[in-house]
Write a structure and sequence with these properties.
Two copies of one chain form a homodimer. The first copy, chain A, is of the alpha+beta class. Chain A has five helices and six strands. The first copy, chain A, binds a DNA duplex through helix 3. Chains A, B: Homodimer.
DNA sequence: GCCCGTGTTGAGAACGGTTATCATTACTGA
DNA sequence: TCAGTAATGATAACCGTTCTCAACACGGGC
């Protein structure tokens, strides 16, 4: 694992992830890749996503349904999300104050290696309007 | 499903959940119940937890490892958690500033019915010390 | 360009958590 | 007490994810 080789598979996953808007599950990404002709294996998709995630090129979080979902993360810096639980669209949000708060609180309680989960699930403007009509 | 019957199992799950501090997984709760002598089935624990969750008597969220974890929700007031990913102990934390931030950000983007997930996972002081020794 | 060592791939098996199945049990209202 | 029917629980099925391992292919050295 010392040297990372470049393979078309890894690149295909990166591109497919960038092409898809919002969060997408590994399975969905695999299906999408097959649909567009890539005979890539499911295991490879998982591996590529895990790699992208650790390298900071992708965000990953757990959907409320328990799936791991991924998103291309052009800006390497840490940020959070506003996710519509109806249509899945996301908006990146600034959370500078929350960052500070999180690390302060963790430190106050003697916690180390703190990673925080700060995401807001709601109904986006469109879906709110659609729900109002129904 | 029209009528809900009262069974000792359901009550046992509720009590065990209240007794356990912080978040606990369904499996752990099942193990705990068996340890204290209840021959309750795993499926029943899942069902009871799901019911408690929909009734609002319990909170549920996904741990970063993908497990569903539950917490008794006696106090209706909303608060957040600092969770040790090693031993599972939790501390309740005040998050007034984060509450304000979350609703403000959601409103700014036209989102409604926003529920936020704000939890910090880390290593508690004890586990940090234990890890340092190893 | 060709070889070879080794990182990578992929099909399928294994795995762990959760949910469904279904015969049996036991609440509950009459 | 009794019948009707939710609830239970052992187990199988399910689903997403990770592991296994033989086959493959990238890339540095020649």
């Amino acid at each position: 694992m010392a040297i990372r080789r470049n393979t078309w598979q890894r690149e295909a996953v990166r591109e497919a992830l960038e092409r898809s808007e919002g969060f997408i599950s590994a399975q969905a990404l695999h299906t999408e890749l097959h649909r567009t002709g890539s005979p890539i294996g499911l295991a490879t998709v998982y591996r590529a996503l895990a790699d992208l995630s650790t390298e900071g090129e992708a965000d990953s979080l757990q959907s409320p349904e328990g799936e791991a979902i991924y998103r291309s993360c052009a800006s390497i810096d840490h940020h959070h999300h506003l996710i519509c639980r109806q249509c899945g669209t996301t908006a990146e949000i600034e959370a500078t104050e929350v960052e500070a708060w999180a690390s302060r609180v963790a430190a106050e309680h003697g916690f180390t290696e703190a990673r925080h989960v700060v995401d807001i699930f709601g109904l986006c403007a469109d879906c709110t309007a659609a729900a109002a009509r129904a």
